[in-house]
Write a structure and sequence with these properties.
The complex is a heterotrimer of chains A (321), B (596) and C (300).
Chain A: H1 5-33, H2 39-44, H3 50-59, H4 66-78, H5 92-127, H6 132-146, H7 149-160, H8 184-214, H9 217-224, H10 229-267, H11 272-281, H12 285-313, H13 315-320
Helix pairs in contact in A: 1-12, 5-6, 5-8, 5-10, 6-8, 7-8, 7-10, 8-10, 9-10, 10-11, 10-12, 11-12
Chain B: E1 9-18, E2 24-33, E3 38-42, H1 49-55, E4 64-73, E5 76-77, H2 83-86, E6 94-97, H3 101-104, H4 111-121, H5 128-141, H6 148-151, H7 160-172, E7 178-182, H8 190-207, E8 210-215, H9 218-224, E9 227-232, E10 235-241, H10 242-248, H11 252-259, H12 298-302, E11 308-311, E12 314-316, H13 321-326, E13 347-356, E14 359-369, E15 374-378, H14 385-393, E16 399-405, E17 408-409, H15 419-424, E18 425-428, H16 442-452, H17 457-470, H18 487-499, E19 505-509, H19 517-534, E20 537-542, E21 554-559, E22 562-568, H20 569-574, H21 579-587, H22 591-595
Parallel strand pairs in B: 3-8, 3-9, 6-7, 7-8, 15-20, 15-21, 18-19, 19-20
Antiparallel strand pairs in B: 1-2, 1-4, 4-5, 9-10, 10-12, 11-12, 13-14, 13-16, 16-17, 21-22
Chain C: H1 25-31, H2 33-55, H3 86-92, H4 95-122, H5 125-137, H6 142-153, H7 157-184, H8 187-195, H9 199-207, H10 212-235, H11 247-254, H12 263-295
Helix pairs in contact in C: 1-12, 2-3, 2-12, 4-5, 4-7, 4-10, 5-7, 6-7, 7-10, 8-9, 10-11, 10-12, 11-12
Classes of the chains: A mainly alpha (321), B alpha/beta (596), C mainly alpha (300).
Chain lengths: 321, 596, 300
């Protein structure tokens, strides 16, 4: 099973990812179909006539065997047809598309700021170990990492938008049809919240990884060879410290995708978070199913990239493949 | 060997402490090394020898600091320089070859890069072309291929011996004045070790480099060094020519070290040293070795002796040195005859082949072990000896053939064997640091087999106490945890655990390889005595051929999964019939090799 | 093969000091100021959450004044969005969160460590199967899975506990497996195998005691996340009862008038923040103590 080098590895991991997604889709479908109620009745309300109920059930394919329904759903997914929202009857894909773009922008912006920041903090803390910066940043990252994001968001709102000062808006104000980047002041707090949610984790991992590397025999040897400290850190230590960090970066980017749900709700941001919360409240199953599969896919892809990146950075693993 | 008489390296009054505590790790160390000379620094784990070695480069690990003394290299005191001034010296004027070559090479960089950067860091050569040529030259000097393809390899693509040679190449690259070698051959095959040592000798002589060779193994050191300095508990206890030390050691500790070296002729008895060396902070007021010394008297416990000269070039830190010299060296004496036990084999191995991940590592082994006999299984790494031992014990999956214990054929895995069979055959592992559960007390560990085999209550208590006594561990060890014990003490616990349920067959898998030479001798002594007293059949696996003389009656030499020679110990060691055995003997450091 | 974990509070590599080993990790952890502060915070907030209802001046649904009215003698912290007493609702509001978080964490920890130990020890097909199964659950953020579950059945207490517990399980399993793998390779496990000790005893008596430190760190970590998650779900409107007193719901319900009547938001925010910081500090203290003992091993 261990053949084919890097490409073989990528192929195997991709297939594995697809398998996971397939199983996830079954579970998502099974969970949402375990509804004790009746979706048709939920849509039409109590005053619905039996005929209209039957007609709607037929339209929603609810009278077909479960496996058939599943198959319809999956093939639909793969073709981009995500069904119709039960709440507003429009196609889910049309409904979600602008929201996905908005959330994507939020996640991307947060990621671009937080990851380099976290790496820098972690490396600097490790290099200046036990000195002022390290002790201070360790404590702060510990405290921030423990706080739930919605608490961070609300605190930021209290500090900067409502109670203490009012420099920034408490909610994002994107006009319907507009885009988040039209309202950058409104983006500040949501992005800040996400950055505060992600940076501490990655910074701590980076610090731990860097310290372990800095204490390794080969780094000591590099110093004993008389290399300049910069060379030791940049050429010898950093590449070895980054390896495990990729995994954590991936999981934290993926975590952003989850954290986005809560943060969007706090700031009323028009993204998938809001759609998901609304969908869950309204039992709008097609929306929930679609978003679940979207997030799962993002997770699997990010993990795959992280695994590949780790392999590329670790020569030992490369040659044993 | 031409050795200039003016020393280029002078160490004076070196003192190193645990940072911020005032507790000394190393004190009053004085050394002088001339260009082209190799000086050995010998001591057990914890004696401070590695700390001294690193201090030659002005380097101290986390938690320790150099507080006094000087290290003069061609007149410049390294310890007086600032860190920025020291950096250019490291690698260029004084280099270091570490113990574990794999750990010292950066796994993410190609070896060519790591070789070249030493040159770049010290501005060697005027351009890239010069440096490339020099790297190729360095590789040739250590007998490694010099082509660019080889240089593009990563460290994990090289064998242990090759990695160590790369380390040597890096150390000699800028033609330093001093090289510090820290046990660079630990973990290498005897043959590879011989090659590496030979390379070091050649390079040191050719380039008139002074070398400090740090090790716990006196025999290995003496094949290379002209002079030897012995350290104990952070201080030098004896310094002299290596030949002189072997013929007439003046310090009791040195004598014991010499007595612990396995030898091919003379007394079989290996003399171990009971007790263990005091660690920093718990060193006694007087002579640190006095508690373990058989020459000690009250004056020794009161005040620390000074280092004094016995004659030219021979100094010793002992007030009773003259008395010590009057005694014969521990290895003197005749060897008693070996009696090979007769009788039906209690353990029979028939046509045993074994594999590892599809590759065959044992080819149709046939072996018989008599009921009270000790059979040594000797071979280098890769010979299959450990696989054989594990297959017999039921710890190895992929095998075919038969293992027969007292007439009963045994299943592949221990788990599937009947209880009695498991009880009758016990196994002791190599690594004392891994074979004891760190979360259990010594008492619980030794008791475990009794629990498995259903022997409890009073009888269980009795057996545990008895076993601990037999392995010379006092009763207060019972409540301690493994990490409070030394390597030798842990191995004793492992022995106690193996013998507590009174087995008939004991398999010892390289049980001394992870221990210092002096501790090794004590363990071998103990095992030998137990084997005789309890009438055990023993299979003793090791890579150290002369060692087997002290414990085994017969020896089987293995190579590439086959037994190439099998016979009585004396015969195999003095008059081997197989070429491989001959080569193995020639490469193994033993007392005879040193004395010749 | 992907070693993905949510580890935020990682074992701190500690400097070598000449202190003597004192025994168990917990005792060492309690010597650190951070563990003590954390423990105090946790104890205080658990006390508020558990005993609050007994000292609350009003019932959580009693009407004490106009919505969002300011603090008065009757309502020390003012009234909330429906005119209910903020102080009373605050004192009642922690129980549910804490109980559910504790249950969910316990569930995830017990079964997660079991899976992790089994996977680490098997080293064969069982390991692969178990870890793939974990991958499936790990394909979502924790909150996502909880929301999907709630979408089908509604925000029932048992469902939330199950969902949070189920998403905690694979994360604990990953960490357990990672911690147990090097132990499985050590010879004392081999020694037990050679004696013929049955598998379950090897897991329980050889492996488990040696991974207690990482498990304790995981416990506090997971508890921290579970609290945040359940409070977060309540904040989003998915608490077990729509108007029941709940710190998370309170924050959401009262934030609209935060400038006029901040107490309705500040009190629950403080409570959740201090509680999670407390559990976080305790976890960090334990991991530092464990790393410190590891480092105490002699080096030369």
């Amino acid at each position: 099973m261990h053949s084919g080098g890097i490409w073989g590895f990528i192929l195997r991991r991709t297939l594995l990812g697809l398998l996971v997604l397939a199983v996830v889709s079954v579970l998502v479908f099974a969970a949402t179909q375990a509804l004790p109620g009746d979706p048709a009745r939920a849509i039409l309300g109590r005053s619905a006539t039996p005929d209209s109920l039957a007609a709607l059930r037929a339209k929603l394919h609810l009278d077909q065997p479960v496996l058939q329904q599943y198959w319809n759903w999956v093939t639909g997914l793969l073709h981009g047809d995500l069904g119709n929202s039960l709440a507003n009857q429009e196609p889910v894909s049309t409904y979600l598309k602008p929201l996905i773009i908005n959330s994507g922008f939020l996640v991307l912006l947060s990621g671009i700021i937080s990851i380099p920041l976290a790496i820098a903090i972690g490396v600097w803390a490790a290099v200046r170990r036990d000195k002022a910066f390290d002790v201070g940043s360790s404590l702060i990252t510990l405290l921030l990492a423990a706080l739930p994001e919605f608490v961070v968001g609300v605190v930021l709102v209290v500090l900067f938008a409502t109670v203490v000062v009012q420099w920034l808006p408490a909610v994002t104000q994107v006009p319907p049809g507009g885009r988040p980047w039209d309202d950058m002041t409104g983006m500040v707090l949501p992005v800040a919240t996400l950055v505060i949610a992600v940076t501490p984790y990655v910074a701590r991992i980076m610090r731990a990884s860097m310290i372990e590397v800095l204490e390794s025999d080969y780094v000591e040897m590099a110093r004993l060879k008389g290399l300049r400290e910069n060379t030791v850190i940049l050429r010898h230590a950093l590449p070895n410290a980054l390896g495990p960090t990729f995994q954590v970066i991936a999981i934290n980017l993926a975590y952003l995708a989850g954290g986005v749900i809560v943060v969007e709700y706090v700031f009323n941001f028009p993204g998938i978070g809001g759609a998901l919360v609304g969908g869950v409240s309204n039992r709008d199953l097609p929306v929930v199913q679609a978003l679940a599969m979207l997030v799962a896919t993002v997770y699997v892809v990010l993990n795959l990239i992280a695994d590949i990146a780790t392999i590329l950075v670790t020569p030992r693993m490369r040659t044993t493949l | 060997m031409t050795v200039q008489t003016t020393p280029s390296i002078v160490v004076d009054g070196l003192r190193i402490e645990i940072a911020g505590t005032g507790i000394d790790v190393v004190d009053d160390v004085n050394l002088a090394i001339s260009p082209g000379e190799v000086v050995g620094l010998v001591g057990e784990s914890g004696s401070g020898k590695t700390t001294v070695g690193l201090a030659m480069l002005g380097h101290a690990r986390r938690g320790v600091e150099i507080v006094a003394g000087s290290v003069q290299i061609d007149g410049t005191d390294v310890l007086q320089l600032s860190e920025a001034e020291r950096r250019p010296l490291r690698g260029r004027v004084v280099s270091y070859v570490p113990q574990d070559p794999a750990a010292a090479l950066n796994p993410a960089l190609r070896i060519g890069t790591q070789l070249r950067e030493v040159l770049e860091a010290h501005d060697f050569g005027s351009n890239d072309g010069d440096r490339r040529d020099r790297v190729a030259e360095m590789m040739r000097e250590v007998a490694l291929p010099d082509d660019p393809g080889y240089l593009r390899r990563y460290p994990h693509e090289l064998s242990g011996g090759q990695q160590q040679r790369v380390g040597l190449a890096m150390a000699f690259a800028c033609r330093p004045r001093l090289i510090v070698l820290d046990e660079p051959t630990t973990g290498l095959d005897v043959t590879t070790q011989a090659h590496v040592l030979g390379t070091v000798r050649q390079l040191a002589e050719a380039h008139q480099v002074a070398a400090l060779y740090v090790s716990h193994d006196l025999a290995v050191v003496s094949t290379l060094a002209q002079r030897v300095a012995v350290m104990y508990a952070g201080r030098l206890v004896e310094v002299g020519d290596s030949a002189e030390l072997f013929a007439n050691a003046a310090h009791p500790y040195t004598r014991r070290l010499v007595g612990a070296i396995p030898r091919l002729a003379g007394s079989r008895e290996l003399v171990g040293i009971p007790g263990r060396a005091p660690s920093p902070g718990s060193r006694p007021q007087g002579c640190a070795f006095a508690p373990r010394c058989r020459f000690a008297e009250t004056a020794c416990m009161e005040a620390l002796p000074d280092l004094r000269a016995l004659d030219a070039g021979h100094t010793v830190r002992c007030i009773r040195a003259e008395t010590v010299l009057a005694n014969p060296m521990p290895f003197a004496g005749e060897a008693e005859a070996v009696v090979t036990p007769q009788g039906e084999g209690i353990l029979r191995i028939e046509e045993l082949s074994a594999g590892y991940r599809g590759l065959t590592v044992l080819h149709q082994i046939n072996l018989t072990l008599a009921p009270t006999e000790c059979l040594a299984l000797v071979g280098e790494s890769g010979s299959g000896k450990t696989t054989l031992a594990r297959s017999i014990a039921g710890l190895h999956r992929e095998r075919v053939g038969r293992v027969v214990l007292d007439g009963t054929e045994l299943a592949e895995l221990a788990r599937h064997r009947p209880r009695e069979a498991r009880r009758r055959m016990q196994y002791i592992f190599q690594n004392p640091y891994g074979s004891l559960n760190p979360r259990r007390t010594i008492d619980q560990i030794v008791r475990q087999p009794l629990e498995v085999f259903g022997i409890g209550g009073k009888e269980g208590d009795q057996r545990v106490d008895e076993m601990l006594e037999r392995v010379s561990l006092s009763a207060d060890y019972a409540g301690r945890y493994p990490d409070q014990l030394s390597g030798g003490e842990r191995q004793r616990v492992a022995i106690a655990r193996a013998l507590v349920c009174q087995p008939d067959v004991l398999i010892c898998d390289e049980v001394t390889s992870a221990l210092d030479v002096s501790v090794q001798a004590a363990i071998v002594e103990l095992l030998g005595a137990l084997q005789r007293d309890l009438g055990l059949a023993m299979l003793f696996v090791t890579h150290n051929l002369p060692l087997v003389r002290s414990i085994a009656q017969r020896v089987a030499v293995m190579s590439a999964g086959r037994i190439v020679e099998l016979g009585p110990v004396d015969q195999v060691l003095m008059d081997p019939s197989d070429d491989y055995t001959r080569r193995l003997l020639a490469d193994t450091p033993s007392l005879e090799a040193v004395q010749s | 093969m992907s070693v993905v974990s949510d580890v935020a509070i990682t074992p701190e590599p500690e400097s070598v000091t000449a202190t003597r080993r004192s025994g168990s990790v917990l005792r060492d952890a309690l010597k650190l100021w951070r563990t003590r502060i954390g423990l105090v915070l946790v104890v205080v907030l658990v006390a508020i959450a558990s005993f609050g209802p007994y000292v609350a001046p009003h019932s959580p649904t009693a009407f004490v004044g106009p919505p969002f009215s300011s603090p008065s003698a009757n309502a020390r912290l003012g009234a909330d969005y429906l005119g209910q007493d903020v102080l009373s609702r605050f004192l009642w509001g922690g129980r549910g969160i804490l109980a559910m978080a504790a249950l969910a964490t316990a569930f995830g920890l017990v079964f997660g460590s079991l899976v992790g130990l089994l996977a680490a020890y098997s080293r064969n097909w069982l390991d692969d199967v178990l870890m793939r199964a974990m991958d499936v659950i790990l394909a979502f953020p924790q909150i996502m899975l909880a929301l999907v579950a709630i979408a089908t059945v509604g925000p029932k207490a048992w469902l939330i506990v199950l969902a949070v517990g189920l998403t905690t399980l694979p994360r604990v399993a990953r960490v357990t497996r990672g911690a147990a793998q090097p132990i499985v390779e050590r010879d004392f496990v081999g020694a037990a195998e050679a004696l013929g000790v049955p598998r379950y005893r090897i897991l329980g008596r050889e492996l488990l005691p040696n991974i207690m430190s990482p498990l304790m760190v995981e416990l506090s970590l997971r508890l921290t996340y579970s609290i945040g998650l359940i409070a977060g779900l309540a904040f989003l409107g998915f608490a077990t009862s729509t108007n029941g007193p709940n710190w998370g719901t309170m924050i959401n319900q009262n934030r609209i008038a935060i400038q006029a009547q901040p107490w309705g938001v500040i009190m629950p925010v403080l409570a959740i923040a201090l509680l999670t910081v407390g559990t976080g500090l305790v976890g960090d203290g334990i991991s530092r103590a464990a790393a410190g003992i590891e480092r105490g091993r002699p080096s030369e």
